[in-house]
Amino acid sequence: MSERLPTHLEVAGLIRLVESQGGSAMVLAKGERDAGTVLIVTMHRGQDATLFERMPQLDGTRPFISTKAQDPEKPMEFSEYLDRRKSQDPDIWIIEVDIDGGERFVELLPR
Known about the structure:
CATH class: Alpha Beta
Number of helices: 3
Distance between the termini: 18 Å
Low-confidence stretches: none
């Protein structure tokens, strides 16, 4: 039996955690219920979006790593990138988190 939580439970817990920290979270893309990949888009007051993806490490951990930041000069490029990711992987979950200290929040998540 796998040690991983089904993705829909992980996402529900993530949303509750964000809300308990005074932030808000929204599912932008709902993927495969039990084994979909989770991407987190953090922002603060709708600004400075950063994408975090789980990246397997040699030690077996799977931390969220920052993989893309929104360019203030080209804001549409970020959403176009997310759209491409959704079309490439229909199992993907994209969660938008609006919280103060998004990077610090993501670092606290289980690996």
